[in-house]
């Protein structure tokens, strides 16, 4: 627990400093005013956001109760779903940092507030937002005190299971896995723009194989959003949009924390289905190998680059640090601790028959300068299906 939260739990609801404690304090005021019903709707961009919000609020409230700062009835109020709800939501809109390119265009067109301000904390702030016109907000319709007609503003209101299905569709199949494939490949192949990267035929074909061929057959259709149409829109309109100037390097951040969800869930579906076999996957294992190649921090031209932040870099990079492009090496000795790590992939990749596959792709990718591109071309030539 963060020290700021510990302090807020110790000091009680009167003068909270952390945002979550402030929210809990507001709920305590509502409780004292008459135990009025309330929906606390999280639109944080991660899975199970409502449940995480509920856990956070209850952690603080229960800490206050334990310290004798609030009555037990307040905790009961928060746990009464007829009084207080924590709806789930799935939010999807790609919104990178303010772009210098957009800023320059606004300046040229005579707009006054075109500047981007860079804070000491490395946050970029501007009066404009460069984002995409496409957006989705799927919300669990659980509002004990009523709600506005959100559906008239394009919000999809549905039940909890459907929100979960929509979230899994996006995070494990139709968007996030494609993003990560572009992130690690783009960093190695010298791209600094997602829009430019998807104009590359190999990159576009790669994400199509991951989305349409390997992921789509095992995704649960949430019904409120058509998964195939979602991918169609992503690859044909959203990712190629130059006015949403996203970068592979941004998406590559914290990849070790993302792989178990973005690929591990699809792999699990292949394990669970008796008619499927994880060894039928070709492009997901290729991306996992590419991420291991990324950890070397040497691009496909043999030049060093700065990897994006990741909490496991200091642990993982030493395992591949002494590999030299074009030199014979014991790939298994270097990768066995990585590929068997269930924390990273959600699976021991050797136990499910993918460890050796990933090793084979990695061995090809370190065979020399240009080998990442060559391995991708060869894999597409051998396994890609017509879309």
TrEMBL record:
Record keywords: Oxidoreductase
Gene Ontology terms, MF aspect: mannitol-1-phosphate 5-dehydrogenase activity
Domain Mannitol dehydrogenase C-terminal residue range list: 167-350
InterPro entries xrefs: 6-PGluconate_DH-like_C_sf, 6PGD_dom2, Mannitol_DH/Oxidoreductase, Mannitol_DH_C, Mannitol_DH_N, NAD(P)-bd_dom_sf
Reactions that this protein is recorded to catalyse: D-mannitol 1-phosphate + NAD(+) = beta-D-fructose 6-phosphate + NADH + H(+)
A Pfam family: Mannitol_dh_C
Domain Mannitol dehydrogenase N-terminal: 11-151
Name of protein: Fructuronate reductase
């Amino acid at each position: 627990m963060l020290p700021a939260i510990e302090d807020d739990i110790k000091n009680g609801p009167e003068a909270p400093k952390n945002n979550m404690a402030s929210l809990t304090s507001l709920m305590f005021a509502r409780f004292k005013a008459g135990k009025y019903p309330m929906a606390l709707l999280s639109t944080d961009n991660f899975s199970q956001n409502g449940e995480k919000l509920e856990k956070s609020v209850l952690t603080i409230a229960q800490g206050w109760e334990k310290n004798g700062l609030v009555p037990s009835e307040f905790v009961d109020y928060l746990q009464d779903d007829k009084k207080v709800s924590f709806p789930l939501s799935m939010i999807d809109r790609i919104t990178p940092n303010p772009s210098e390119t957009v800023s320059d265009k606004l300046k040229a067109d005579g707009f006054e507030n075109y500047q981007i301000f860079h804070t000491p904390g490395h946050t970029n702030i501007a009066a404009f937002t460069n984002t995409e016109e496409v957006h989705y907000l799927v919300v669990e319709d659980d509002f004990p005190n009523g709600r506005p007609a959100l559906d008239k503003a394009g919000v999809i209101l549905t039940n909890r299971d459907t929100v979960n299905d929509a979230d899994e569709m996006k995070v494990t199949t139709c968007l996030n896995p494609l993003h990560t494939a572009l992130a690690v490949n783009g960093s190695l192949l010298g791209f600094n723009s997602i829009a430019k990267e998807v104009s590359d035929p190999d990159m576009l074909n790669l994400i199509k194989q991951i989305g349409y061929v390997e992921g789509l057959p095992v995704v649960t259709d949430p019904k409120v959003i058509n998964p195939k149409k979602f991918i169609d829109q992503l690859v044909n309109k959203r990712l190629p949009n130059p006015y949403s100037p996203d970068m592979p390097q941004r998406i590559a951040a914290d990849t070790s924390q993302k792989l178990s969800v973005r690929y591990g869930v699809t792999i699990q579906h292949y394990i669970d289905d008796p008619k499927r076999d994880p060894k039928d996957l070709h492009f997901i294992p290729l991306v996992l190998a590419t991420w291991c190649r990324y950890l070397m921090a040497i691009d496909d031209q043999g030049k060093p680059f700065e990897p994006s932040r990741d909490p496991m870099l200091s642990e993982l990079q030493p395992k591949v640090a002494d590999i030299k492009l074009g030199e014979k090496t014991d790939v298994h000795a270097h990768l066995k601790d990585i590929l068997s790590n269930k924390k990273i992939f959600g699976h021991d990749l050797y136990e499910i028959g993918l460890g050796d596959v990933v090793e084979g792709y990695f061995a090809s990718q370190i065979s020399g300068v240009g080998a990442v591109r060559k391995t991708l071309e060869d894999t597409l030539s051998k396994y890609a299906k017509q879309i």
